[in-house]
Write a structure and sequence with these properties.
about 200 residues, six-stranded mixed sheet, five-stranded antiparallel sheet, globular
Length: about 200
């Protein structure tokens, strides 16, 4: 009996983000980081044994400073709370990393859960990106406070989201949001960006 074909993954924004392109002088550029691997990690970052186990499995230790991001190559660990982090990695690596993490964390009061399908990642960049986000984000986005390497959880336009700044030249951000709210958030972002103009980049 032939094995069933693996279903092709689909983004909640497939066919919804509009045509790629737009004015070259647009204030913001919108896009989607598709199928990024994500693992929810529970454990205390200042526990040396926990931190070393995570570093061995992921390639970097979780950040101990609130609201910060640890990065190494194309992987990142986002601080979400005193005992919670989110590990990000390229698509397709999440199963192997989750397996390695759970093996390394065996016997500890810790866990690693694959939550890849639990978030969609929307990207916004450009000279007006911070200005657009500030229309619906209650956390201070002043560059002296929120800069590359920072992350926060709050409500963006009434939608629970995780916001991470990845670059400052130009200002670039990743927004992690539940798939069921992805279209709503996209609509809000495009509407909020009308004053400065936007273009869409390929995912």
């Amino acid at each position: 009996m032939a094995e069933a074909a693996t279903p092709t993954p689909r983004s909640p924004l497939d066919g919804y983000t509009g045509p790629v392109g737009g004015p070259s002088d647009a204030g913001v550029v919108l896009g989607e980081l598709r199928f990024q691997g994500k693992i929810n990690l529970r454990g205390t970052a200042d526990d040396k044994a926990f931190s070393e186990a995570v570093a061995k499995a992921v390639g970097l230790a979780p950040p101990a400073t609130p609201g910060t991001v640890a990065t190494a190559g194309d992987r990142a660990v986002l601080w979400l709370g005193p005992d919670e982090s989110l590990v990000l990695m390229p698509a397709g690596e999440e199963t192997a990393v989750a397996t390695a993490l759970n093996a390394a964390l065996a016997g500890m009061q810790a866990s690693a859960t694959d939550v890849t399908d639990n978030y969609t990642t929307v990207r916004i960049a450009g000279p007006k990106a911070r200005w657009v986000l500030a229309k619906g984000w209650p956390v201070d986005l002043h560059p002296g406070v929120f800069c590359p390497g920072r992350v926060a959880q709050s409500n963006l336009a009434l939608t629970n989201a995780i916001l991470r700044q990845t670059s400052d030249d130009p200002p670039s951000f990743e927004i992690l949001v539940r798939p069921s709210f992805a279209k709503y958030l996209w609509d809000w972002l495009t509407d909020a960006a009308l004053e400065v103009g936007y273009r869409v980049e390929a995912g």
